[in-house]
Amino acid sequence: MRRALDEARAAAADGEIPVGAVVLDGSGTVIGTGRNDRERSADPTGHAEIVAMRAAARARGEWRLSGCTLVVTLEPCTMCAGASVQARVDRVVYGAVDPKAGAVGSLWDVVRDRRLNHRPEVLAGVLAAECGALLSEFFVHRRVR
């Protein structure tokens, strides 16, 4: 999670919402990193999780991320939760809960929907206070402008 927090801080420095993500392979090696980059890239899918999973898939040379763990500072939205299911990640680990758009247990629970053919394990609340504080601080400064 510390590496994901570093990515989130880098996103904030670029004026992006501070969300960071990493993908670890089965041995714990980082094979993909990402940070929000929607503003810079003008890409609505430029969420940290998507960026990290794309990098991990390139590193592996295939779209299946079986055996991998997605670690992200904020609970994934429906798009990112769905992408983690489609990528077949084994585990989703996140920090801060997102009661407004979270899709891994808060507002929705996409990853544990029994109708889907793959359901990643979920570990929530890892360094939640630190992850949440980074987001809160960003939005306080943004509102002051």
UniProtKB/TrEMBL annotation:
Binding site for Zn(2+): H47, C77, C80
Keyword Zinc: yes
Residues covered by the CMP/dCMP-type deaminase domain: 1-107
GO BP terms in the entry: tRNA wobble adenosine to inosine editing
Reaction(s) the record says it catalyses: adenosine(34) in tRNA + H2O + H(+) = inosine(34) in tRNA + NH4(+)
InterPro entries with a match to the protein in the record: CMP_dCMP_dom, Cytidine_deaminase-like, tRNA_aden_deaminase
Cofactor(s), by name: Zn(2+)
Active site: E49 (proton donor)
Keywords of this entry: Hydrolase, Metal-binding, tRNA processing, Zinc
Any matching Pfam family: dCMP_cyt_deam_1
Keyword Disulfide bond included in the entry's annotation: no
Cofactor notes: Binds 1 zinc ion per subunit.
EC primary class: hydrolase
GO molecular function: tRNA-specific adenosine-34 deaminase activity; zinc ion binding
Role of this protein: Catalyzes the deamination of adenosine to inosine at the wobble position 34 of tRNA(Arg2).
Similarity comment: Belongs to the cytidine and deoxycytidylate deaminase family.
Protein name, entry field: tRNA-specific adenosine deaminase
Record organism: Actinomadura montaniterrae
Gene (UniProt): tadA
